Amino acid sequence: CLFQVPLEKGKTARETLEEQGLWEEYRLKYPYNPMAKFEDSFA
Amino acid sequence: VGGESMTNDADLAYYGIISIGTPPQSFKVIFDTGSSNLWIPSIYCNSPACNNHDKFNPSTSSTFRNNGHALSIHYGTGSMTGFLGYDTVTVGGLAVKNQIIGLSETEAPFMQYMRADGILGLAYPRLAASGATPVFDNMMSENLVNQDMFSVYLSSDTQRGSVVTFGGIDPNHYSGSISWIPLSRELYWQITVDSVTVNGEVVACNGGCQAIVDTGTSLIVGPQSSISNINSKVGATNHNGDYLVNCNSIAQMPDVIFHIHGETFTIPGSAYVRQSHSYGCRTGFGNGGDNLWILGDVFIRQYYAIFSRAQNMVGLATA
User: Model ipTM?
Assistant: First the structure.
């Protein structure tokens, strides 16, 4: 049998920040680095 | 393996509910095939990021055991520190006993805007910070699942409908045949892409490249020059790192095709363009590092992804 977890597609952090007019400040303060998760030596 | 890194992806949207402890305490977590730790905020954390999320209270759980070891998970722009403990984690009705859990004591400020409380990593155990055992490894070792595989279906149009399936494949989530792709590395869910084409022309990954299938990254990410090339081919212009397009021309935008293991995986304009009331339309191709690709949610919404630890393969089928 299969065990399933429904996923909610919720509001993203970016959408929340844009609504609050904070996205530009956040984007500069916490520049997104998608590779931060992946150690070069492992990938 | 040292401290594990994590992303500050502000576009992550999908999360599910798990419960931890006895009696159960519920948490929203991102099911992340790009990392291997399970962690959630604890009551000992007073960072702003913890104060607007649910916090785990070990003292009210009769099945909690302290592991005593410290845990630190590093992000691109911050880190999470805490400690490890064991408890029963219930995922999709499955009670996973003696699951090691990271309990945060400090978190990076950007976490406060994430809807999810924490992360449930589904990559290989060698990747886990502090040598923690990932949840799915415990599901397998406790013989809780029929098949040593899990799969992810991400729906694009509704709030609901997305599902993580543990123990097998859900035939309702795909059509056509499944393409099985051997892993090039058993650490991340890492595969080899042969090339990327637009209108029959190779625009990136010429001669092959490495890609990680990652539910914990929202975009399709690649080397800057490749991503710039793809975005210019589809008519996007860079604006502060976002690649903007005209919302009225989506139907005319060319397919971007990923050639993997001798098969073609097409991403049409309707799949790689995301619309929002605040910035209009932007493509889902984002700049990454120098050579690695990440096939994130933009890709997985098109292709039902099956992660097989039994065969060390990724299965892809039209979602």
Answer: 0.92
